[in-house]
Give the backbone structure.
Amino acid sequence: MSANVVIEPCADYELEPIRALMRNGLKALGGVPALFGEARRVAVKVNLLAPAKPEKAVTTHPCVARALCLELRAQGLEPFIVDSPGAGTPFTEAGLKRTYRECGYADWCGDLDVPLNLRTDAGSVSIQGARIKRLDVLNPILEADAVISLAKGKTHGFTHVTGAVKNMFGVVPGILKAGYHAKLRKLEHFAEMLVDVAEFVAPRLAVIDAVTCMQGNGPSAGEPVRVGRLLMAANVYLCDKVFGDLIGLDLAQNPVLSRARRRGCFAPADLSLMGRCTPHEGFALPETAVTPEGFVNPSLLFRLLQPLFRHVTLRPAITEYCVGCGVCAKSCPVQAIAIVDQKARIDYSKCIRCYCCHEMCPHRAVRFKKSVLHRLLARLARHV
């Protein structure tokens, strides 16, 4: 049976069963020759947001990465693992080695079968994007014959979900990611940029590790939940669309896919699914996905209230768990955070609500806080 998205049940992280699923999925999508053509050296772009144990569901599980890479090697390709972690992790060879080690890649993938990229060099390239015209990209990505987006299925405080498309933002090296947040402060602009990146990188294959996902206020401070699925597709947008269906995220609440659909990158009607996508009961979406700013096509009421942005959006708040490590300050794209008396302090007059501090805090010391006006508008939004 041919399909453009494959969703397979996967009970646990076991190498050989997952490798068999990868083999079947590649065949259902048309096979390696159809997907990769003459390409041989393939960059497998995983999600290694931060040094975190695999069971925390912050990163792509190394078993999935190894299974995919071993299957690709068996079919004549030369895959390697690559990513640029979030701004809280030094983007150096030592930082990458630590990330691979903590995320389990040194044990699962650290051999000659699956090379782990340690290069940090990058180039600035011209692109024909709708939002951006220059893009900073890791040279190992630029030099590869083809790219695969091997994502972790998670919620995300800013973009609501992170999957195969959002995963492509990791081609931007290290701390330079913060610059994109600083320049593209509105969610719709940031989402447009993510589509620009995905269109430029043009991954040949998308795979989402949804065996154990992160629910709630991801992408690092949420809770692991066993969903038991693997998704594969030749189109990153369709892959993300099915993942959204799986976790109960409406297409209208997905700002990235809304932009991609508007640009003609995919059409939901084009979906040809192999397997069953039964929504996971009780999956917790991030708080930001069910609040006024979560509506991609807001009503006239919310457009009129745009000047009240700071009062109707969730704001990051530092809790008693803060140890003053400074990761949030380093991650803040507008330098709105300072460490005072060994505790983070946020200058809300500068805060752009990108939630990078929440995303990168290794101690889960940042939470979302609602204003009274925010609560009122959230109630109104349910009836709009």
Notes: The CA atoms of residues 318 and 366 lie 5 Å apart. The domain at 291-381 is CATH 3.30.70.20 (Alpha-Beta Plaits). The chain is about 30% helix and 20% strand. The chain has two domains: 5-282, 291-381.
